[in-house]
Write a structure and sequence with these properties.
This protein is of the alpha+beta class. The chain has helices at about 20-30, 60-70, and strands spanning about 5-10, 35-40, 45-55, 70-75, 75, 80.
């Protein structure tokens, strides 16, 4: 396995107030997070309701998918793919 490979997860159905900092706090508990991006409208900067969470390790990404899918974030279940 490539030591520099990353594993990206789509996290959808997010509450509009979910931030990168909140997602980092939640997902970093599973394993080291490489980066997080909440996708936003280019004009209004409002959240589009989904994000990408990138882990350094495929194993950590798989663990996050298995353990955090449908976890409540701001009282709304997230969907991870």
């Amino acid at each position: 396995m490539n030591a520099y490979a990353t594993a990206s997860l789509y996290v959808g159905d997010l509450h509009p107030e979910v931030t990168e900092a909140l997602l980092f706090e939640l997902f970093n508990a599973v394993g080291p997070v490489a980066s997080i991006r909440v996708c936003r409208d280019s004009v209004t900067r409002r959240s589009l309701g989904y994000a990408y969470v990138n882990f350094h390790s495929v194993v950590d990404a798989e663990r996050a998918l298995e353990t955090m899918n449908y976890t409540l974030i701001k009282n709304k279940p997230c969907r991870i793919m």
